[in-house]
Amino acid sequence: MHIPRLAVLAACGSFVVAAGTPSKAPAGTTAEMFSEDLTIAMLADGRVLLHFDFEMHGPQATNSSLHSYGLLPRQIGEIAQRYGVSELQLAFTQGTWREARWGVPPAAQGIGAEVIAQLADDADADAQWSGLTNALSGVFCASLNFVGTESTTSPRLAFAHTQRGGALRHGFLPRENVCTENLTPWIKQLPCQAQSGVAALLNPHRLFNMHFLSVALALNSDADTLRYRQTLSVVVDAPANDRSWALSALVGRALAAPCPVATRSSVRVVAPAAVQVAPPADSTHSAGTSVTHLFDLQRRRVDDIEFTFSAEFDVEPKDWATTNDTPVPAIAAHRHITGHGSSGGIETVIVNHRDALVTVAYFDAVPWYLRMYAHTLSVRATDANGHTAQLAPNQIMFTPAVDRGRPAVLELELELPPQSRTVLRYDFDKGFLKYSEHPPDANRGFTIAPAIVSYSLAPSDTARPLACTPGTVCAVRVYTEPALASLPTPDFSMPYNVITFTCTILALFFGRIFNLLTRDFAVLAPAK
Predict the structure, then answer these.
(1) Closest Cα partner for 235 from 269, 253, 252, 210?
(2) Residue 63: pLDDT above 80?
(3) Rounded to whole angstroms, how far apart are CA atoms 312 and 231?
(4) Mean pLDDT of 262-269
(5) How many CA atoms lie within 13 A of 31 on its CB side?
(6) 472, exposed or middle or buried, with CB in 10 Å at 0-12, 13-18, 19+?
(7) What kind and span of H or E run contains 310?
(8) Within this chain, do residues 67 and 156 fall inside the same structural domain, yes or no?
(9) Does 525 reside within a domain?
(10) Domain range spanning residue 298?
(11) Dist. CA 478–CA 239, nearest whole Å
């Protein structure tokens, strides 16, 4: 059968546009743009931070069935429209960021999987949230569909900078692990995937042999523009005791040509002055004991970057912490569980490293099976002179838990004194769960999602995360460590023991009775 050539071309053209190739924006709208950046920073303990940042923005779609998605991933755009999402943040994190050794994190995330969404329809927010988490679970091969009502909250203070009307929902899975099944669909959302640009360095075999890994995306939309950002942060070991090594030795791959649709493609290297970087960068500038080398990949091709410690550097590369001016985060927070038996408490320590008063918002979601007592809340601050006093919160918002329905939520607004150490503590009792509600490894305990401390950084603040836009007020979140709570655990082997014991008794009883009923006793005459 003969098929007209024009029909074939039309069919192929429609397929290519649907597949996500760049398309021209309609007249009168903002053209789509894509940028890719890689930051390589040598940390104070000899490890290396790789921070990948991919950003896209384009016109806001008014009708998903008529909108031709170009650089913006169609899956994310359609999910946002289907469930009325004006802002979305999704992160998968594994490992702990050591701020005492590594300084300010590039983008703070809590251990596990976290979803934050601003939904347009407040009346139907629960249904939209359920559909959103299930859709994201399918796209990123994660267990986000388990973010149910028991782990969903609606913060009012901690994420105040994101609220623009509608309903805000926050969910956390502290035991969610990051694996290649999450990374592969994340890479597929990029215009060039891992075929070109700095994304060519995303080697799963090396990325998951790390100390810290965070894979995140953020979507922000307004009336005219949709902004989409993907970030990946990983801390890896530098080659041990080598005074010279290359970037390709860290990730197992070499840099490729820039993504053809990228408007900016750059690599930024932050290293101590005693480290020589080759080839020479397009521009450099010094800050303290560190030097920043900037490579513009669109101006010239860079296949690899080599790092060499100079001869006068008389210490091993892993021991140059004393020569590195690592910036200290303004706020640090840590949390642990106290007590024993059926009762206990949660103690959170918040440290203000600044010489000025800092206003923070504290957010803590406590599972319903830890029956929190709000009247036991205590906040005490110790200043630089060692004086300890009660610290009265500016605001307190407490939402009690509902058994098997929702967690208890505690939100505080605190003004931390300069150079102070604030201890926040409350008590709880441990509830009893049904045997079917325990996880397979019940004796390990239950992982409690980390608490969140949020605050704002001024545009002039130099100790800023890489995710913050320079020259703007930046909202920063600090996550504590997840807590591990031991709950009363039933003896799961008891049914097996009872069945075994009962069957043994029945077998013995049946055997004796059966013998008595069926055996025929007779007197045998003596043999002649």
Answers:
(1) 210
(2) no
(3) 37
(4) 94
(5) 8
(6) exposed
(7) none
(8) yes
(9) no
(10) 18-323
(11) 30
